[in-house]
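Practice problem 4.
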């Protein structure tokens, strides 16, 4: 029997950082759950609860979910609608493909005044004559039934037929209960005969599986439980067999962090992106750790010639070209992006050489300080001559008048 445990709910609440007290949506579908329990105590803030494709025989232990708006229990073993009166915020209820034969049990939903959508497709009660008309009158707050809108004309026609309709449905329910009791006994005998026929065969024998899946069976809760148990047993055997087959491969894929000579390897098992910067005086590793990963699941180890980051058991290791100062190395993580920055000062930092431009500037400043260089303005027109320069005309001395 599969139980609802705290570990299972936390596993399904990864989107809420594994916090179940404030969880608003929970999906527990296809878990072979056979009973609803603990959810009402642990997750009182739930608005959406998905329990489809399980083996739940009864609706129970949900009365504390005052904020629940959508409940999906499709494809289960439910035979009666009950214990939902306290869900005052319930707006949508999905009971598709169950075994509900007691149609009058829908009257227990009258107190759910916010209920607007109801799905009963695939239940035995949907085969009763006047099924739709009865549900429309029994639940006047409904706006949709089985995905079809309820119109005003539907309500008027159903109101005319309702007085004689309920008596007929009660009779059909009594017949269904008798047939259900007979079916329960008949299916139980069939299951015992089938188990006796393959009792001497080993569990991993193919004949056992062939006999089980080829036999004719009735559609009922007992058959669904038997099929689920057989499938669970087959999966367990396959997993056990697969584990034995995979052992040699695991030996081949043994993790190696160092070479035989002691040189560290570089590997990235968690497959996270990273940026590595080699500065003259330090190494910087920017590791793109997942944003919503809890820091307690990350371990950082800085050694003289390598740095190792373990993320949820998977190793990220990077070999370094130079030794670092482990006692001065720091590690910080961003609260917005989740990235992790590891700064590792070098043990023997490189000598920083000034650029050539800075050298020239320093030389000019030095020459000016010692008194060298040019002094005063410079006439650039007389630096070099050429044909481009205009020649002044020669003065005729005879034309110059005498001085008085």
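Answer key:
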């Amino acid at each position: 029997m599969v139980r609802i445990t705290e570990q299972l709910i936390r596993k399904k609440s990864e989107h809420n950082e594994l916090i179940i007290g404030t969880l608003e949506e929970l999906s527990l579908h296809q878990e072979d759950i056979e009973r609803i329990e603990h959810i009402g105590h642990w997750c009182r803030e739930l608005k959406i609860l998905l329990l489809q494709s399980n083996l739940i025989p009864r609706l129970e232990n949900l009365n504390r979910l005052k904020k629940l708006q959508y409940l999906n229990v499709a494809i289960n073993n439910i035979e009666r609608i009950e214990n939902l009166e306290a869900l005052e915020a319930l707006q949508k209820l999905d009971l598709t493909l169950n075994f509900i034969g007691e149609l009058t049990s829908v009257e227990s939903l009258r107190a759910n005044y916010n209920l607007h959508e109801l799905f009963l497709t695939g239940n035995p009660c949907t085969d009763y004559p006047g099924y739709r008309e009865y549900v429309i009158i029994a639940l006047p707050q409904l706006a949709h039934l089985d995905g079809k809108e309820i119109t005003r004309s539907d309500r008027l026609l159903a109101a005319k037929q309702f007085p004689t309709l309920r008596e007929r449905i009660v009779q059909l329910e009594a017949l269904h209960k008798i047939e259900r009791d007979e079916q329960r006994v008949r299916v139980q005998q069939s299951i015992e005969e089938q188990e006796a026929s393959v009792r001497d065969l080993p569990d991993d024998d193919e004949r056992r599986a062939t006999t089980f899946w080829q036999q004719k069976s009735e559609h009922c809760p007992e058959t669904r439980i038997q099929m689920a148990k057989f499938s669970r047993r087959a999966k367990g055997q396959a997993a056990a067999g697969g584990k034995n087959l995979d052992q040699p491969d695991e030996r081949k894929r043994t993790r190696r962090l160092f070479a035989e000579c002691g040189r560290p390897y570089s590997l990235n098992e968690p497959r996270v992106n990273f940026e590595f910067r080699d500065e003259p005086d330090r190494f910087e590793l920017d590791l793109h750790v997942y944003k919503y990963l809890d820091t307690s699941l990350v371990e950082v180890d800085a050694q003289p010639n390598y740095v190792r980051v373990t993320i949820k058991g998977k190793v990220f290791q990077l070999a370094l070209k130079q030794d670092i100062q482990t006692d001065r190395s720091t590690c910080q993580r961003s609260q917005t992006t989740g990235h992790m920055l590891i700064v590792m000062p070098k043990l023997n930092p490189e000598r920083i050489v000034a650029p050539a431009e800075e050298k020239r500037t320093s030389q000019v400043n030095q020459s000016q300080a010692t008194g060298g260089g040019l002094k005063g303005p410079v006439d650039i027109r007389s630096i070099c001559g050429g044909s481009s320069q205009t020649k002044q005309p020669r003065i005729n001395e005879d034309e110059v008048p005498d001085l008085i």
